[in-house]
Specification:
- This protein is an alpha+beta fold.
- It has three domains: about 45 residues, no CATH class; about 140 residues, Beta-clip-like (Beta Complex), CATH 2.170.270.10; about 120 residues, Serine Threonine Protein Phosphatase 5, Tetratricopeptide repeat (Alpha Horseshoe).
- The chain contains 13 helices and eleven strands.
- The strands form four sheets. The chain has a four-stranded mixed β-sheet with strand order 3-4-11-8, with no helix packed on it. A three-stranded antiparallel β-sheet has the order 5-10-9, with helices on one face.
- Bound molecules: zinc ion (3 copies).
């Protein structure tokens, strides 16, 4: 069954099926005009024919079952672990400067009508909720609907139209990565996903903030998460244990970098890495945790003169990075750096 498509660049919707032209190379991404195709080419050329998912081809937005859950994204085909589900550029970027509010509103007003209406359609949490739950620096009642929408939908310093439609699960089946050098949001499958399944990402980082304040999700987004972490205390305890281990590893890593560290630091750091990787794999956490642990383990292994292990750790870090943000025609800088490091260790061991 064909569905009405959206322009990949400006989010305009077709009035009739097959109204829009497709990229002549991959024949998948749809555009309302030559101009939109041209404007999107800089991004698309790196991902054309790389089997990236598209809205209303590989997944659709529809109502979730169960009351009050709103809309979500659902797979129209199966995905394999590591498949790229969505590559998206931000329609707005935010700065924290003195004129941030004015700049954002100016930027919004200069966008094409179709992008502005796609922003206006995003979910909004009302000011009443924020006045009760979040200590904002200004009264939420002084914020316009547009600003409340941004508060609820922004990821880091960008606003993304389709990315914002993914519902949250602390332990999700997809992961979101924001890649600096390409300025893109990349969503990849964390597990194999069946046709019909809802696609989810985690809005939170697993760090002290979320452990110290279990209500953070409600305060920020006005819903209570019902994922396995939030209903099963034994899983939550594993997450807390993981966060504490990551903090301890960070301290050890810092002392190695700043004042050489000791043999005990190496041994403790090494076993922390092993345990972190084990728990991440068991829980299915975003790959950035595993990549980070393998990268630190490689450095510690080099210090311990375990060069084969160091190369193996770097290979695994590269593999994880490829599954989360790689697989395109222009390899991201962070992967290139790891490859250089790996080749260097291999040559000098
Ligand atoms: Zn367009
Ligand atoms: Zn293409
Ligand atoms: Zn949860």
């Amino acid at each position: 069954m064909s569905r009405l498509r959206y322009c990949t660049y400006c989010y305009k919707k077709e009035d009739i099926i097959n109204e829009f032209q497709h990229c002549s190379i991959c024949r998948v991404t749809a555009y309302c005009s030559r101009n939109c195709q041209k404007l999107n080419w800089n991004q698309h050329k790196n991902w054309c024919c790389c089997n990236v998912g598209n809205l209303n081809v590989d997944y659709e937005i529809r109502d979730c079952e169960g009351e009050g859950k709103g809309k979500g994204l659902f797979a129209l085909r199966s995905f394999q672990k590591g498949d790229k589900v969505l590559i998206e550029r931000p329609v707005l970027k935010f700065d924290d400067g003195f004129n941030a509010r004015e700049n954002t509103i100016d930027d919004y007003e200069q966008l094409p009508e179709s992008i502005r209406s796609a922003i206006d359609d995003l979910h909004m949490v009302n000011a009443d909720h924020y006045s009760r739950s979040l200590g904002l620096f200004i009264s939420p009642y002084d914020l316009s609907d547009f600003e409340l929408r941004i508060l609820c939908n922004r990821f880091s310093d960008g606003l993304f139209i389709i990315t914002s439609r993914f519902n949250h699960q602390c332990l999700a089946n997809c992961e979101l990565n924001l890649v600096n050098d390409s300025n893109l949001a990349i969503i990849s499958a964390l597990t194999d996903i069946k046709e019909g399944e809802e696609l989810s990402i985690s809005y939170i980082n697993f760090d002290s903030d979320i452990i110290d304040d279990p209500d953070m999700i409600y305060k920020k987004w006005d819903f209570h998460c019902c994922c396995p972490r939030c209903i099963d205390n034994s899983i939550n305890e594993k997450v807390i244990h993981l966060v504490h281990m990551e903090e301890e590893l960070e301290e050890i890593y810092f002392s190695i970098k700043v004042n050489q560290g000791s043999k005990e630091d190496d041994n403790r750091g090494y076993s922390l890495c092993e345990e972190i990787i084990r728990i991440c794999n068991e829980l299915g956490l975003p790959r950035k945790h595993i990549t980070e642990a393998y990268s630190k383990m490689a450095i510690i292994a080099i210090r311990m003169k375990l060069f084969d292990i160091a190369v193996d750790c770097l290979d695994k870090a590269i593999l994880n990075l490829n599954e989360s943000i790689g697989g395109c025609k222009k390899t991201p800088n962070v992967i290139l750096e790891k490859q250089t490091c790996r080749d260097h260790v291999l040559k000098n061991k």
